[in-house]
Amino acid sequence: MAMLSQTIKSADWKTEKHAPVIELPESIKAGEPCTIKVGLGKAVAHPNTIEHHIAWISVFFQPEGAPVPFQVGHFEFAGHGPVFTDPKVKVTFTTDKPGTVQATSFCNLHGVWESSAALSFS
Questions:
Q1: With CB atoms 3.0 to 4.6 Å apart as the test, which of 13, 66, 76, 122 could cross-link to 27 if both were Cys?
Q2: pTM for the whole structure
Q3: What is the pLDDT of residue 51?
Q4: Residue of 87, 90, 119 whose CA lies nearest to 102
Q5: Where are the alpha helices (DSSP H) in 1-122?
Q6: Closest CA to 88 of 99, 73, 71, 69
Q7: What is the pLDDT of residues 85-95, one digit of tens each?
Q8: For residues 75 and 87, what is the distance between their CA atoms, to the nearest angstrom?
Q9: Active site residues
């Protein structure tokens, strides 16, 4: 039996509709609020139907030197018909260290996907 970590998939969001897209602001300063966006389907649309949809997105931040990431937020999408939710989130957090933003998403048919982006200060 495979461990969960062995089943998480990753790919370039420009070619894979399941990979989370992390958008960081152009200018970030230490100790000031940082607003990021995470979504799916920026380059390749992900279906949003009862049969095939994104159920949730989780966002984490791992400061440089920290042994583990910290969860910034977990967002569930309940609209899978007759109202359909667009799987995009915006979250603001404050940090005094650069690090890595990590995002995971769950597709009800294709499992858990991950992406990451480096957060550095201007």
A1: 122
A2: 0.92
A3: 93
A4: 119
A5: 4-7
A6: 73
A7: 899 999 999 99
A8: 9
A9: 16-18, 46, 52, 107, 110
